[in-house]
Design goal:
The protein is mainly alpha-helical and 434 residues long. Helix content is 87%, strand content 0%. The protein is globular.
Length: 434
């Protein structure tokens, strides 16, 4: 039996534990400051304008995720796989992933810029939002490249460097976000968003240049773009479907409810995102380690079980904490955000099921089971939209944010059961064969 001292030594020497520590350390500080700034910004703008801010950032986020085309995860997997075996391919992998990101995100940025009037009038029912949409269109390009850069650093295992970057971004978000919103309201909040993404891009680029090894390359050593696209396509379709459905449910609140309900939903999402941030930042850690151990089923199983247990414990603890503090949390937003407590309480418990399903998602991805994951995601995201639409119709748009939160909870429970059951049965069959 291991002594406490021996266990301590093993944990210190474990690369998985060290990578996880740095991933958590920097992001907790960064996300905490971002959340604090979000609360202050919400108070400055008020529920309705904050709802407009939420739908704009949701529009950008939806397009950004799709325009990245899954290249954040692709870059992590390919760099982690080839870092030791074929280091001469790393520069080509980085160049290919970044060039593809620029192409997809550039097209998306231009499309939104010229279609801003249509989006504002036909989808958002608010013509005045056309200028803000054009203003932040450039953040799609910058943000998408940043996502790929995150994946590159994760593939190199540079989680300490990512922690430093996210800490700086957290402080920048707090300072620029509050100051610019206070003086320039909605447009100020959006300008701050662009400035922060630009800073994030510069910091990530600096660490990538320092992390890329100087290994001689040869013209015959190539990584086919076709291979990268084949891996990325089902991931891109997963994220596209998720983004479209998430955005569509937001539009349901705009069309069938009010911008106030969008504001409540946006505020609650920040708290669920806070809980998911710790498990979420480990997604690239998990993918990196699982991809590096493709031929070691014992190590893969140990990593999977450890992260499942960790995610469950962390999300349960944080969900309970926020649940018991929800009255106080809702009060910090002001009287204008009445009804926020109930939405937060449901949203935070949804994170337990989401965080655990994310672990299985990385396991599927590391084994190139991306098309199967697409099938599961279509079921989950489709259910969220259908249930939300049904509840909004039944309640005549009343308590729209609460309806959306309930839909997400039910759909994510089913999603976890489906993914976990299929993977565990597949794992048992694989163990019998081996």
């Amino acid at each position: 039996m291991l002594s406490i001292q021996e266990l301590k030594v093993r944990l210190i020497r474990s690369k998985l534990v060290n990578d996880s520590f740095w991933a958590i350390f920097g992001n907790v500080i960064g996300k905490g400051l971002s959340l604090l700034s979000a609360i202050i910004i919400a108070r400055i703008l008020g529920k309705d304008v904050y709802g407009e801010f939420g739908i704009i950032t949701s529009t950008i986020g939806t397009i950004l995720i799709f325009s990245n085309f899954g290249l954040n995860y692709t870059s992590t997997k390919y760099i982690a796989e080839h870092q030791i075996a074929k280091p001469e391919l790393l520069t080509k992998i980085i160049k290919a992933c970044q060039n593809l990101t620029l192409i997809f995100s550039g097209i998306s940025t231009i499309t939104l810029f010229f279609s801003a009037d249509y989006v504002a009038v036909s989808l958002l029912n608010s013509p005045k939002l056309s200028f803000p949409l054009r203003l932040v269109a450039i953040s799609i390009l910058i943000g998408s490249v940043c996502r790929t850069q995150e994946g590159i650093l994760a593939g190199f295992g540079k989680f300490k460097e990512l922690a430093k970057v996210n800490t700086v971004i957290g402080f920048a978000t707090f300072i620029f976000g509050i100051i610019l919103t206070y003086f320039y309201k909605l447009n100020g909040a959006l300008i701050a968003l662009i400035l922060i993404k630009a800073l994030y891009f510069a910091l990530l680029r600096y660490y990538i240049s320092r992390s890329t090894p100087s290994v001689p390359t040869h013209p015959t050593n190539k990584i086919p773009l076709k291979e990268i696209l084949q891996f990325s396509t089902p991931i891109a379709l997963q994220e596209a479907f998720y983004s479209i459905i998430t955005y569509a449910t937001g539009l349901l609140l705009v069309q069938l409810s009010t911008y106030g309900e969008v504001g409540l939903s946006s505020a609650a999402v920040y708290w669920s995102a806070l809980i998911l941030y710790i498990p979420g930042i480990l997604r690239n850690v998990i993918l990196s380690h699982l991809s590096a151990n493709l031929n070691n089923n014992k190590a893969r199983l140990r990593i999977l079980r450890l992260i499942l247990l960790f995610n469950f414990g962390v999300t349960l603890l944080l969900s309970l904490t926020i649940f018991f503090l929800s009255d106080y949390i809702a009060a910090t937003y002001g009287n204008n955000f009445s009804g926020l407590r109930d939405v937060i309480n449901i949203a935070v418990f949804t994170t337990i099921f989401t965080s655990m399903s994310n672990v299985y998602a990385q396991a599927y991805m590391s084994e190139n089971k991306n098309w199967l994951m697409l099938f599961f995601r279509i079921i989950r995201d489709g259910l969220i939209f259908i249930i939300t639409y049904t509840l909004l119709k039944e309640n005549n748009g009343v308590n729209g944010a609460l309806s959306l939160a309930k839909s997400a909870l039910w759909a994510n429970i089913l999603f976890l059961l489906l993914m976990g059951l299929v993977y565990e049965l597949k794992l048992k069959n694989k163990t019998k064969i081996s």
